[in-house]
Amino acid sequence: MSLLNVRNLRTHFHTEEGTVKAVDGVDLDIRPGEIVGLVGESGSGKSVTARSIMQLIEPPGEIVDGDIEFKGDSLRALSGERIRRLRGKELSMVFQDPMSAFNPTQTVGRQLHDVLRTHREGPVSITNRLLGRDHSPEFREEVVEALDAVGIPSPEERYGDYPHEFSGGMLQRAMVAMATICDPDLILADEPTTALDVTIERQILSLFRDLVDNRDAAALWITHDLSVVAALCDRVIVMYTGKVMESGPVEEVLSNPRHPYTEELLESVPRYDEPDDELHAIEGSVPMPTDLPPGCVFADRCPEAHDRCREAHPPMYANVGPDGDHRAACYLLEEER
Amino acid sequence: MTLIETDELTKHFSTDSGVLTRLLSDETVHAVDDVSIDIERGQTLGLVGESGCGKSTLGRTLLRLHEPTSGDVYFDGDNITDLSQRALRPYRRKMQMVFQDPQASLNPRQTVGELLRKPIEFHGIAEGEEAQARTAELVESVGLNRNHLNRYPHEFSGGQQQRIGLARALSVNPEFIVLDEPVSALDVSVQAKILDLIESLRREYDLTLLFIAHDLNVVRHVCDEVAVMYLGEVIERAPVDELFADPRHPYTEGLLESILLPDSAASEDLSKLPITGDVPSPIDPPSGCRFRTRCPEAMTECDRVDPELRSRKGERGERTVACHLYD
User: Fold this and answer.
1) Do residues A236 and A229 touch, judged by C-beta distance below 8 A?
2) Beta-carbon neighbour count of residue B184 at 10 Å?
3) Are A40 and A239 in contact (CB under 8 A)?
4) Helix and strand counts by DSSP (H, E) for chain A
5) What is the pTM of this model?
6) What distance in Å separates the CA atoms of residue A178 and residue A173, rounded to the nearest whole number?
7) In B, residues 26-65, which contact A (CB 8 Å cutoff)?
8) Which of B196, B260, B269 should we substitute to test contact with A (largest number of A Cβ atoms within 10 Å)?
9) Structural contact between residues A37 and A235, judged by C-beta atoms closer than 8 angstroms
10) A–B: how many Cβ contacts below 8 A?
11) Interface check B300 vs A, CB under 8 A
């Protein structure tokens, strides 16, 4: 059974230049225990998808259609209060820039402590806050353990450090600790390693994989980097201008991509082990979000495009590989049948 | 022939700008320490290392965008370390820089035409209609067209903005360009086009390049030689194919092993961590070899003596490396 079930999600932004269909008809499933990679270039709608799931879309953005079911509940139907209680506890998020996700005026330890306390005991009353009765040694102990679990050296001492006293990699570890401290069922991670060096990135990926496995959680990992998907994820969803182009088990999608976009994207990754290969670029550029082509959104850049592709966006074809879970939205696959 | 050379170039920053605190504490950030590198005319030298290792500071200091703390910078044999701003001006024209974030490095209030014309006029290369004609040539040489001259930077995609950044650097006929992570902010599908453009411009204009990057996959494709930096020091230097085929310094080896590729077998390697821990603080770098705190091969000697960067014999020939393993 799926933990998260997203059907036909449409999140649009109403701007002066017209409606931006940032997410336009996305289907997505996450099962317990798995890490699903959501991959795409800038403007593909991957971050908006995660924010829509978290119910963090604000005007001029709007979820105009679709169902988001999490553990059987429709998130769109829940009240603001219910959603707030869910966030952090059952559903948490890791952001790309930890420096802006942490409050710079409070210590890292205290911020983790407060997350834990809020979800266990609810908000602190003003009287208790004024009297300084808002800190518990028991939660502090748990925070220190959590910091230790993400590999922060001497966590007891680092508890009282402010965010700026942490290095980028350490702060990202602390954010992973914050996102996992309440044992959530699902973690949405929005490019948390993009700003990090590959040496540190590997450490965080490995740590994250272990945390998810040990806690029997699940995760959606947003990235533009197919190499990260290869290293970390079980399944992958490839997005382009708000639409899913291909999805399936990572090994299959990477070794046997069925959508020309996935194929082109893989070819455009420079490889140190193939120094004599010419660098490959995808022709053209991502279309303006207010001015998407009428047919397949990739048709203008696709080496395989034919007349039909310019008329209507192709449907998603299932069973395009040996694993029934492999899907792609390309007319080429229909002709194969 | 050597175009750019540094001799024990050092750049330290004070952690505090206040006079009193500076007198009371002498905390300095050792951003670049005793770096001696040289770049042959027409060559592309890659500069790699983790963030905070001093790559960008080195690039900026050798352009004298930062004043060196000590050491010397030579351009085409001339020592430019102590030249006054006025005396430096002709060299400024010959040495340009392209930044990582194209949007932040282009004035949003100037049209592309203005952005390109200003440096041409400032350096007295051309004026009026001639300068105008030159801007048109420039945009075309980077794959844009004349109609783009009247537009503002925000009207362009990231890839196009980086083309404008390149055109601006080229506008004054430079001989040497520091490219500071020129494709890191771009989507992978457009990176290749910008890298190809850089390569064709290098050939067309006979440029010498310092290519600062953290992505080793990219470096493999565009550089002739590579210098690896760690905590302000160059720890290994080699022609690009030698470095990738046979890294000598344990840090270089770890960096190469850390590279991720989009292959289906990659997940099996994830638990293997070639380099653990963080880069230590450049305020108080470790004694001896700066990498020893993370080095799997560290020996007692490493915390006492800082290994100098020099040609050292290995089992497979000589190489320029700073490591006691090859003493």
Assistant:
1) yes
2) 15
3) yes
4) 13, 11
5) 0.90
6) 9
7) 50-51
8) B260
9) yes
10) 131
11) no
Which residue in chain A is spatially nearest to B268 when comparing CA positions?
Answer: A231
- Candidates A199, A235, A239: best to mutate against B (most CBs of B within 10 A) is A199
Above 90 in pLDDT, residue B317? Answer: no
Contact criterion met (CB below 8 Å) for A237 and A205: no
- Rounded to whole angstroms, how far apart are CA atoms B325 and B319? 12
DSSP E strand stretches across B171-224: 176-180, 208-212
pLDDT in tens, chain A (337 residues): 789 999 999 999 999 988 999 999 999 999 999 999 999 998 899 999 999 999 999 999 999 999 999 999 999 999 888 898 888 889 999 988 888 889 999 999 999 999 999 888 877 778 877 877 778 889 999 999 999 988 888 999 999 999 999 988 889 999 999 999 999 999 999 998 888 888 888 988 998 999 899 988 999 999 999 999 999 999 999 999 999 999 999 999 999 999 999 999 999 999 999 988 888 989 888 888 888 898 999 999 999 999 999 999 999 998 888 877 899 999 999 876 5
Backbone angles phi, psi at B120, to 5 degrees: -65, -45
Task: Please say whether the beta carbons of B32 and B58 come within 8 A.
Answer: yes
Return all residues near B227 (Cβ < 8 A) that are at least 6 apart. B37, B45, B46, B47, B48, B234, B236, B237
* CA atoms of B99 and B185, how far apart (whole Å): 10
Secondary structure E strands in A91-217: 91-94, 186-190
Where does residue A291 rank: exposed (0-12), middle (13-18), buried (19+ CB within 10 A)? Answer: exposed
Cβ–Cβ under 8 Å, residues B327 and B248: no
Pairwise CA distance, residues B110 & B118, whole Å: 10
Per the document, the length of chain B is 327
Question: Chain A within 8 Å of B280 (Cβ-Cβ)?
Answer: no
pLDDT digits (tens, 9 = 90+) for B2-35: 999 999 999 999 876 666 666 666 678 999 999 9
- In the block, residue with structure tokens 């592709």: A309
Residue type, A269: V
- B308 residue type, one letter: E
At residue A39, what is the residue type?
V
Distance CA B213, CA B196 (A): 16
